[in-house]
Structure formats: structure tokens, C-alpha cells
Give the backbone structure.
Amino acid sequence: MPRHPRRAVSVVALVLSSILARPGGSQPLDGGTSPAERSTRKEEPTHGVPGAPSAPRSPLGAHGPRKFDPGRAREQLEKLTTGVRRSGGRVGVLALDIASGATLAASDERGLYNPASNAKLFTAAAALRLLGPGYRYLTGLYGEASNGSVAELVLRGAGDPSLRTRDVWEMARELRAAGIRKVTAIAIDQGYFDARFVPPAFEQQPDEWAAFRAPVAAASLNANALRFTVRPSRAGQAASVAIDPPGFTVLRGTVTTAKRGTPEKIVLRLEPSGQRVVAHLSGHVPEGGRAVSLARRVDDPRMVVAYALKEMLQEVGVEVSGEVRLGGEHQKRLLVAHRSAPLGELLAALGKDSDNFYAETIFKTLAAEKRGRPGTAEAAAELVGEILGELDAFGEGVVLRNGSGLFDAARASPESIVRLLRTALLDPALGADFTAQLAIGGVDGTLRGRFRGWSKERAIRAKTGTLASVVALSGYVLPPPGRSPIAFAVLAADVPGKIEPVRRAIDDFVGALADELWKGARTP
């Protein structure tokens, strides 16, 4: 129990009121974003009772206090723990009332587990605490302009994980509009981060080329992954191949267009070649068939944006006559600036979409901003650990090596995660933004297909986590007016081949918590 339960209740009311007060917060619960929409913006929790517009806006002013009966939730917890143990695994669980701190359900809550992507909760909380939701990344073009010419044009990155091809196109157009017609050399300043592009623990799968594990760099483009789009033409002719971003890849080989009805088959292999990569492409697609898209990570991402910039400058009418290289740290004159969306919006990629690249880049940003440049994963881990200590979430045995939780990189207990969740929601400076970046059950992100029965209330906000033998889910059950939220964490380990049954059992447990919290407050 907290020392000041009344104060805890008032802070919960303040934070939930802040969430409710966001634009759209007074809209009907069955309106707004489609459940099929992949959201990268903040979602506003709405916790009034549908069809009752006269209900008080204060989250503690409607249904009145009632005692939470955890009986059914504990029954589901027993089914969960029994099922996991029969499968040879283990599971840790903790659910508590945020206002009072009272435990509602628990099992091995202090045990240490691989949290998988639940580690992104730690990264998100530390980012909001240290940088603030309004923080924006700057990517700039620097150099000395004279008579429409720049001898050395420098693109300097500061870790923006959201930089896309269209942004570099816009920067090239702005440079052209500023009167620049010729660039001799292009340099890329990657000094904001260290040169370790692959985050800690990613070496556990060294031959994995999937885009989900793209390495990080200070100046990154399209999450340092290449996307190949193959479109069929007429039978017997070569299919067209578009590569995004442009400029970095040398294409060899062709994909042919086969007769209608032929099964598609595409073989793609990337081979490093100097500063660039060679893509060996072969296979066939049927005439009249769909466009086929393939994504592959870039092993060394330092020059991706450099060659893309060169290509785009030439497209907009700026001559580039010299080399493309690393460097340019000495250039200080800013010619063109691109700023990202606010951090509070970017964090949706962590909580809603579980994007590993965003998580690792934001993780290193913390070190670069607060520990000095170049930012390193090791300094970030130390810094995040300190923040977790301040948030009363760095329990004994908690370990963080990277920012995403990918592979075997972290250890955490349900208790440490629930402490973080409770402290974050009780902090008016963190609560609304931290909650907004989480997936909404039945509505968006990685929870779009789960808790569909709760999509109307938007009450379940959580972070998923899945590895080969790990299932995790941690977050909140947000209440109807007059009741206190619940924070929960469920971490299951050693369940290879049992992911789906364990996930269903976790959902049943969380659903039981929600049923009791909303008892008597839901409309049909």
C-alpha cells in the first residue's frame, strides 16, 4: 500500500483526465479509427460509458467505489500457470490496483524472465523521462555555398528512426530551390552514434537478413532496409523491379514474366560490394499477377542515405561530380533542415507496432544526448537502468543489453514491469504519453486481433512480446469512471511450440481482470 493512497487516487484521476481531454476524447466510443488501421499516431483513451453523454467527465466521478473481486481472474491465472507448467515452461504474473497498490493476482512475480519486446516499455519510459514527448530529431544538409555551388555537401544524422525516402527527396528539392546547382562531393556524418551498427544480442542470429533486425546508424534511411518491388509485364518479357531507397543497390539478374497461372518464384541474394550492395535477382512472376514486395536489411548501413541523396539531387537538377564518402564533421553551416515528428508520436512504433529498429535507435539516442557522443548501446543500457531505478522499477536481477528486447538480451520480473507501469501512470508528466504509445486491444498495433470484445471501450492497453519460446504481455486495464486502473505483467518462458495456447490463456486472464473492473459499467 502507498503511504498516501488518497494522493495516489487523485493523481490517477489527473492522468486519466488528461488522456480524456485529448482531441477526440469526447467522441462516441464506437467512432474514430478503424480497427484495421495501422496507427502511428497517439490514440486517445476514452473511458466514459457509451450512450451516456450526461456522465461526469471526471474519471472518479461516476459509478462510485466498489470492491474489486479477483476471484475469476485468479481462476484464469491458475489455468494459465497449470497449462504452462504442463508444457515444461514457467510463468510469472502480477496484477495490482494502481491507486492503492493492492495485489490482485500474483504468481512468481519476482522471478526473472526474458521479457522479449516488453523491454520496449523500459526504453519508452526512459525516452519520455529524459527527452520529453516534444523532442524532435534533426537531419541536416551542411556546407559552404558559393555562386550556386557546394564543394562538400554533408548530410548529418542525429538518429532519426523515421527518415524516409520522401524526406530526402524534399531536402534535395529545398537545396535546389535555394539556388544550388552543383555539388562536388557528398559526405555522410555518422558521428552521432558509434560504429557498432548491430545492437547487442543481435549477433545471436548472424545470418538473418530479415528487415525486422535492421542495424542502426546515426543517419539511417527507411530503417536501413531495402525494398524490392517486382511487377509483371507481358509473358516472356522481364518484370520491372523498383528498389527503395534508390542509388545504393546494383541490380544483377532479372525476373521473367511467365504465362498466367504460373506460381510466382523470386530468389534474391544481397552481396556487399565496396560501399554498396549487389542484388542478385532471379525467378519468375505470372502475367497479370500481383506486384511482389521483398524487404532485406542492409548489413552496413552507413552509405545508404548517401547514395540515395546523390540520386535524388541529380533527379531534381543538381549536378554531383565527385565522390561519396564518410566524413564532414567539420561542416557547421546548415543549408537545409528536416525535423521528425515529436518523440511522443514516434513512440507508437515501439508500443503499438513493436518496431525493433525504432527501439534500438531511440535507445542509442538517449546515450548520445545524455552521455555524450558517439552514443553507444552500453551507455544507453546504463542510463536506462538509472532511470528505472528512479522509477522504482530496477529490481534485483534486472538486466538490459539492448533497447528492443530482441533475442536473449534482457531479464526482468513481472514485479519490476508493474512497478514501472504504476509509477508511469501516477506521474502526470509521463502517464498520458506512455499510455498513448501502447497498443489498444481489438483496435490497433499488435493487439488489433486480440481483445476484440473490448474494442468499444478501448480499455486494454498493452505491450506484446514474442520470441521462439517466450510470450509476454504487460500493460493496463483502464477503468470506467469512478474506478482505479489495473497494471499487469505476464511473462512466460520455455514454451517452444506452445506460443498460441499460452497467448490465449494470457488473454483469458487479462480479460477476466477487465470483466471484473468494468462489471456493471458496460452497455450491451
